[in-house]
Amino acid sequence: MKWVLLITAGLLEVAWAIGLKYSQGFTKLLPSIFTVMGMIASIYFLSLALRDLPLGTAYAIWTGIGAVGTVILGIILFKEPAELIRLICIGFILIGIIGLKISSAH
Questions:
Q1: Where exactly are the transmembrane stretches of this chain (predicted)?
Q2: What Å distances lie between residue 31 and 16, 54, 75, 90, CA to CA?
Q3: Where are the domains positioned within the chain?
Q4: Is 3 exposed, middle or buried (0-12, 13-18, 19+ CB in 10 A)?
Q5: What does the alpha-carbon distance between residue 80 and residue 87 come to, in Å, rounded to a whole number?
Q6: Residues 6 or more apart in contact with residue 92 via CB below 8 angstroms
Q7: Which one of 16, 30, 81, 82 is most buried, by most CB atoms within 10 A?
């Protein structure tokens, strides 16, 4: 369950990061509300996961999920560049996430 909570927190981080773009600096009400709700929910689920996971591992995976998901959605939604070097770097982050999960398999 701790990993489900952490993955949920990471996916919510992606949601609020994308929401920041849509909120246009918190000038659009509805996207701003969803962004803040996503922030609160993401931190809440992270806090629940931290009950049973080491802080460094959980935080690195949380931010890693956020980084990977945000870059991928940035490419899809906002036509950000999908250059090979960016994709390779995201691959390294993904490898790090997997490595931390494997090393924390208890």
A1: 33-50, 57-78, 84-102
A2: 9, 33, 20, 27
A3: 2-103
A4: middle
A5: 12
A6: none
A7: 16
The pair of structure tokens assigned to 97 is: 């996430």
The pLDDT score that the predictor gives to residue 104 is 84
Structure tokens at 44: 């809440």
Per-residue pLDDT of the chain (106 residues; tens, 9 = 90+): 999 999 999 999 999 999 999 999 999 999 999 999 999 999 999 999 999 999 999 999 999 999 999 999 999 999 999 999 999 999 999 999 999 999 886 6
**3 state SS for the chain:** CHHHHHHHHHHHHHHHHHHHHHHCCCCCHHHHHHHHHHHHHHHHHHHHHCCCCCHHHHHHHHHHHHHHHHHHHHHHHHCCCCCHHHHHHHHHHHHHHHHHHHHCCC
